[in-house]
Design goal:
Length: 224
């Protein structure tokens, strides 16, 4: 039987250093998957990203923090430069980020504990029922539908009973590549209620939905 190694929450463990293929030119861009190419684009100007999004939709993580019991354990998926890690810690919680972009990992470490890893592998990083809250602010946008559905399953299993989940994904436009000023990124679009349906399908109870260019889903795990 294969034994999984889990990161211990709350201690300074990091996962085995990842081989980031775009760093050493070992792979051509055609061989890389869309998620890796998209994640790499954030390295063009990570400081500008941090500045631009400093105050963006701050009410969302503030609300998430307030919904959780004191001293909750929160997993921040794709934590970027770490703004929300800091916000969760300031609200009295223990947060850990998972982030694949090395520039963001370096920046986010100033705000809390971060594991440099792919959010598609969270089931290998943490034991079941480790977290009270899982937060995915705009970080599933580059994953395919199949990858997101698997991640939703994994997130559900990592939450404790009654744990809370938040995610937002793109809701308008078409799935595919977008050439942005700082690089090329893949976006998967979830029209109508497709994302809500996917979140409920893994067993979450949907508590609230915000619709706009992004669809934001607030959900809760059941429990006895
Ligand atoms: C739009 S940014 C959002 C960052 C942050 N959550 C925020 O709200 O500012 C998407 C983030 O998700 C990260 N990300 C995307 N796919 C990832 C993956 N498969 N594994 C780890 N991080 C990922 C990106 O590197 C980037 O930091």
């Amino acid at each position: 039987m294969t034994k999984r190694r889990h990161a211990t929450f709350g201690f300074g463990n990091r996962s085995t250093p990842l081989h980031i293929p775009w760093e050493d030119g070992a792979m051509s861009s055609e061989q890389l998957d869309p998620v890796l190419i998209s994640v790499a684009a954030y390295s063009a100007d990570p400081i500008a990203y941090e500045r631009h999004y400093k105050g963006h939709l701050l009410d969302r993580p503030t609300r998430f923090a307030s919904l959780l019991p004191p001293e909750s354990r929160i997993l921040d998926l794709g934590c970027g430069p770490g703004r929300d890690l800091r916000l969760f810690a300031d609200a009295g919680h223990s947060a850990i980020g998972v982030e694949l972009n090395p520039s963001f990992v370096a920046m986010a470490t100033r705000h809390g504990q971060v594991i440099e890893a792919d959010i598609r592998n969270i089931r290998d990083l943490f034991a079941p029922q480790t977290f009270d809250g899982i937060w995915a602010q705009a970080s599933l946008v580059h994953l395919s539908r199949t990858e997101t559905k698997q991640l939703l399953k994994d997130a559900e299993s990592l939450l404790r009973p009654h744990g809370r989940f938040y995610a937002c994904v793109s809701a308008v436009g078409e799935t595919g590549w977008v050439n942005e000023s700082d690089g090329r990124r893949w976006y998967t679009v979830w029209p109508e209620d497709d994302f809500e349906v996917a979140v409920s399908a893994v067993g979450f109870e949907i508590e609230d939905v915000n619709r706009g260019p992004y669809i934001e889903v607030w959900a809760r795990k059941g429990g006895r």
